[in-house]
Design brief:
By secondary structure, this protein is α/β, with parallel strands linked by helices. The protein is about 45% helix and about 15% strand.
Amino acid sequence: MHRPVGVFDSGLGGISVLREIHRLLPHEHLSYVADSAYAPYGDKSSEFIQERSLAVSRFLQAQGAKAIVVACNTATAHAVELLRAELSIPIVAIEPAVKPAVRLTKTGVIAVLATQRTTQSLRLKRLIETHAAQVQVLVQACPGLVEYVEQGDFGSAALRALLQGYIQPLLVQGADILVLGCTHYPFLTQTLLELSEHRVHVLEPSNAVAQQLQRILQQNQQAAPSSQSGQVQFYSSKRSQQHHLSMELLWQQPIALKPLPTP
């Protein structure tokens, strides 16, 4: 059996990336870990994020993963260098789509929505300095959004009020691009568009991540044969029926969920 690609997130948001990988690379076996017992990573310390990211990545490597996709902006910001130093397989990272946002903006103002930890990260600061020096970048921390997505809530009145409070000041300042700096947030795209009265473009990097994974597998001659039908295995560190139902809602198919072993 051909080796799978491992994908992980602090919770269920990485399913947005997993869906794009599965669409672009339907022949690849995929193993997805939702570390939802510890979600969100965005309000944890850097040391904790590194510890969990390494533990989950080692689990995926032990399952035979030939590459790992870090489908979590917070984990990328705080742990990707550690993962690349500790593991012997390729690590594909994710980062906010700042560069394409700069190309698309008409007003010269873009906004990045992210978790608290991502907004404070040196990696995001460098990304903005490298690619967005010629535009104004508004960085907005969005505590609470991850929890709504984990519960399968994409449009309740309470969520909409929280989102409105985050984006209204950005719109007033002229932002015409909303860059989603957390893999949970793409599930809120429709609500974001409605609240902004469709005056903004919403960007997220799932396709770019899937394409980068494709390039790496081809370069390493590890791409699955086209005769193979890719299977997807799901693991989670959280055990509850509601969590399982939320995962199926996001994946849009029934899921046979396995528990993530406790280290």
